[in-house]
Design brief:
alpha/beta; seven-stranded mixed beta sheet; four-stranded antiparallel beta sheet; 12 helices; 13 strands; 15% strand; EC 2.6.1.-; PyrdxlP-dep_Trfase_small; transferase
């Protein structure tokens, strides 16, 4: 009998991978499912982006292996995007590495910097992949609390009381997923100072900056951030390109080179046409962001109405692609609550528990459902 690697004992199948099978089964039985659980944009990229891809696939160079570092013009577009939107200067030849989605960057960074037994600071609640990748590479997850009473930001006094001697890496993500907390440059300055003090690599996962957020920020805006920090970003949410798998990691040349040494052994470059589409997307004017956010604002208003109809208290300060809401008093289990709604009303909502123990008592709605469907969900109650 062929046995699996021991590392598989440290992880389970991704929650949405298994739960969506159940959701699809209900849909196949004819149930009128409304999926508000997963943050997969339901809209298309701009026409200019699609046209750029259509033109690119006719290029005689489109179908061969591509550079591990991406097209020079793609890296230049990414550098220009950071300069124009965050006033951050990045050298496109050495401080940016295109990725096949920022999620793969979590694995590449972990493989590049973590040894077995190293410790990793992971937000609770936070993106589950931070934990699973940490376990897969043989490092140890050390969770730090994020709580509503502290606006879902780290408690630095509590962090300083931890034994940080084995901590090599710290994950953050602002705007925060799943809560939508904005973060601030003041917070980023504190985090950079903390990372420098304890010689920790700080990584900001930043795919939600431009969704319902009037003040997009980058960790790399902080003076000296490049000395200890990397930032992941993605075109998935900002430009409705989730399935295209285009992201980037930015930071100083030495850190980026370490990630490249891993990545270049994992794939053979991003498809040429997708790179050309990404270049066009990164040129988008303010009108693109405005039109997307106008639509998301309308969806958020209706989704908040749905949450309040369920007796939940919405975290109103949240930005990004989700609505985070506290369950009604007396409800003991977020997962039981959403399962009841799924099987009685055929609406799928994500339970806060999948993001960590501090997510118990909360649920998360994705704004990836058309207004009429959100209204239908409201009407079912």
């Amino acid at each position: 009998m062929i046995t699996t690697a021991n590392r598989l004992n440290t992880v389970e199948e991704y929650y949405f991978s298994s739960k969506l099978r159940e959701v699809r089964q209900l849909a196949s039985e004819g149930k009128p499912i409304i999926n508000m659980g997963i943050g997969s944009p339901d809209l298309a990229p701009s026409k200019a982006v699609i046209d750029a891809v259509a033109l690119a696939i006719q290029d005689e160079n489109a179908h061969g292996y591509q550079s591990y570092q991406g097209l020079p013009e793609l890296r230049k577009s990414m550098a220009d995007f950071y300069k124009n939107n965050f006033d951050v200067d990045l050298n496109p030849n050495s401080e940016i590495l295109p990725l096949m989605g920022s999620k793969e960057g979590i694995m590449h960074i972990s493989l590049a910097f973590l040894n077995e037994g190293d410790q990793v600071l992971i937000p609770n609640p936070g993106y589950p992949t931070y934990t699973s990748v940490t376990n897969l590479v043989g490092a140890k997850a050390v969770y730090y609390d994020l709580k509503e009473s502290n606006n879902w930001e780290p408690d630095f006094e509590a962090l300083e009381q931890l034994d940080l001697s084995k901590v090599k890496l710290m994950w953050i993500g602002y705007p925060h997923m799943p809560t939508g907390a904005r973060g601030s440059l003041v917070l980023f300055e504190k985090l950079i100072a903390f990372a420098k003090k304890h010689n920790i690599l700080l990584v900001n996962d930043n795919p939600y900056s431009f969704v319902l957020n009037d003040n997009p920020m980058s960790l790399l805006q902080v003076d000296g951030a490049k000395e200890v920090a990397l930032e992941l970003n993605s075109l998935s949410k900002t430009f409705n390109m989730a399935g295209w798998r285009v992201g980037m990691v930015s930071g100083n040349a030495d850190l980026i080179d370490a990630v490249l040494r891993v990545k270049s052994n994992m794939d053979s470059g991003m498809f040429y046409g997708i790179q050309k589409g990404a270049i066009e997307a990164l040129k988008s004017s303010q009108s693109w962001f405005d039109s997307m956010n106008e639509m998301y604002k309308k969806r958020r208003v209706l989704t908040e109405q749905l949450a309040e109809k369920l007796g939940c208290k919405v975290y109103k300060e949240g930005v990004g692609l989700f609505v985070w809401a506290k369950l009604p008093e007396g409800i003991q289990s977020a997962e039981q609550f959403i399962d009841q709604i799924l099987h009685e009303k055929y609406i799928f909502i994500a339970p806060g528990t999948i993001f960590g123990s501090n997510g118990e008592g909360y649920i998360r709605f994705a704004l990836c459902v058309k207004e009429e469907k959100v209204q239908e969900a409201i009407d079912r109650f």
